[in-house]
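The following record pairs a protein chain with its ligand, adenosine-5'-diphosphate.
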Amino acid sequence: MQPVQQFSLQRSPTTGLLFGLIITLAAVLAYASYITVQLSGLRRLQSDMVDRNRKDSLQLLRIQNDLNSIALAMRDMLDAAEPYPLTAWSAQFDRIHADLDAALKLEEKFAGANRTPEQRLYLNQSLAQFWDAVNRMFALAGASKEAEAREQIRLTLQARQQALSTAVSRLLVENNEGEEQAAARIAHIYDSVQRQLYLFLAATLIAIVLTSLYLIRANRQIFARLAELSEQRSDLAQKLISTQESTLRHISRELHDEFGQVLTAIGAMLGRAGNQAPEGSPLRADLQEVREIAQSTLNNIRGLSQALHPVLLEEAGLESTLDWYIPTAERQTGIRLHYEKSGQPFPVDTGAGVHLYRIIQEALNNVSRHAGVTEAWIRLKFLPHALELEVEDHGKGFVTGPSTPNGNIPRGIGLVGMRERAELIGGTLEIAHPAQRGTLVRVKIPQDKLQTHAA
Ligand SMILES: Nc1ncnc2c1ncn2[C@@H]1O[C@H](COP(=O)(O)OP(=O)(O)O)[C@@H](O)[C@H]1O
Ligand SMILES: [Mg+2]
């Protein structure tokens, strides 16, 4: 017994596939947004911290450079060998002052939040005090108090310059440290992005592999089910064909034997009775008439019996049956049939012969019903190892269109039956388009399959 569940509808794999697709898409989206956030963080870090820091350091270096120039100038001023008065340096100091102010303004802008208010206050105050002292020194020098002015340089100015220089150096070091921290943070972000990338790749790969495995499994189940259904359908069709064939053979035989014998007997008795009736009497004429009716009924019954199941097949074989059937079919359908036989004939078993006979019947039926022509060709070819049977017409051909979901062969029980019969005797059926338009039905059966079959 087959398990009942096999006949229920199988669950469609669409839900599972959609689920897999959604998971994969969600992973991609999540990773994309994660990457976007990380990248914008990186960009902020880069422009806000690193670039500003670098510009700030440049200004600090400029300030330090100015302070160095001041230190050199003061050393020259204290040099006893110098022939110039101290006021000669006043212009140089003014220039440095202006440059320092400009540098400080820029530095303050770039340093921004990096600098504490105390640091800023200290720098500004120290510089202001330094310039006050410079002014005082030049005032003394202007008043020809050179010795006092030099004293001022030695005692106050040099120390203040030193302190300023140290403060600027400290800021530079701080900037450097900030830059290193930013670099470390950037490296950290890169590391985590890379780690997430591997995780993401692994997750999507797993999702894809699982979905694919599921798809493959579902596909295999569907194909197995399909193959099973197709086999069942084929079994059913072949059983129906066999049943039909044996029923038809039985009826045909009963008609031929029972009714045939009865009618033959009636005909003989009527003949004898007629002979006993007086010559020229109406009874004799009536008996003769009834006898003719019995004879024509007998002929009809024989014809019907032949049509249902040609006894000829059993008695004389396929070739003779076709020799009888084709002119009959020509009369019945009104189609001119060109019958060609070729090759070296070999015997064909009755069982196989019945199926070939039915295939020709159905093919000719189709020509007369669908092709819209008055001419057809039938070819029986005895090939070296196979028998080939063709029915060709140059009519409409198969109409393809949306009503034919399985491609170019329309649905119809006649075609299915022909194919099943061909397969039942181990052959193949092919429907082709001849060079001219129309339809060509071709059945090919290997020779060894034609000698051992029963209907
Ligand atoms: N010789 C032919 N020429 C044109 N169309 C044909 C021919 N044979 C079959 N067909 C088409 O194929 C369809 C299926 O044929 P068949 O299975 O025999 O079913 P049925 O004859 O009962 O319609 C037909 O309806 C017809 O459209
Ligand atoms: Mg048909």
